[in-house]
Design goal:
4 helices, globular, 3 strands, alpha+beta, three-stranded antiparallel β-sheet
């Protein structure tokens, strides 16, 4: 039985060395009990996948990233530290490109058989 395609594309956002260095710098400023030490290998082992609008054949993937880079950057930073005072500034597309590798997957298939639910729906 074929599985259904989902009307979404997937962005895989993988942290790079500068992101790991930022985490290490922030951690070193915090009390020991609040530190969350991690390595670049650990960060890259399980990168975040973002469901994004399905990319049409005639669309440029860079246009999609132009629309989403800042939201994704904020999500990645706030996943570690919600205090914006700890974030680098200013957030720019160039900084995003230095800190993350982004891969787009346009074909998304749902093999779970379960409905998609957002966090607040669970």
């Amino acid at each position: 039985m074929p599985y259904p395609f989902v009307n979404r594309s997937v962005l895989i956002v993988t942290p790079l060395q500068p992101f790991a260095e930022w985490l290490e710098a922030v951690d070193s400023q915090l009390p020991e009990e609040e530190q969350t030490p991690t390595t670049l290998d650990e960060l890259q082992a399980d990168p975040t996948a973002y469901l994004v609008p399905a990319l049409q054949e005639d669309e440029d993937p860079n246009d999609l990233l132009d629309d989403l880079w800042e939201d994704i950057f904020i999500q990645e930073l706030s996943g570690w530290y919600e205090d914006e005072e700890l974030w680098p500034g200013p957030l720019t597309p160039e900084l995003f490109d230095e800190w993350f590798d982004v891969r787009l997957h346009t074909l998304t298939v749902d093999v779970s058989g379960e409905p998609l639910l957002a966090d607040e729906e669970e």
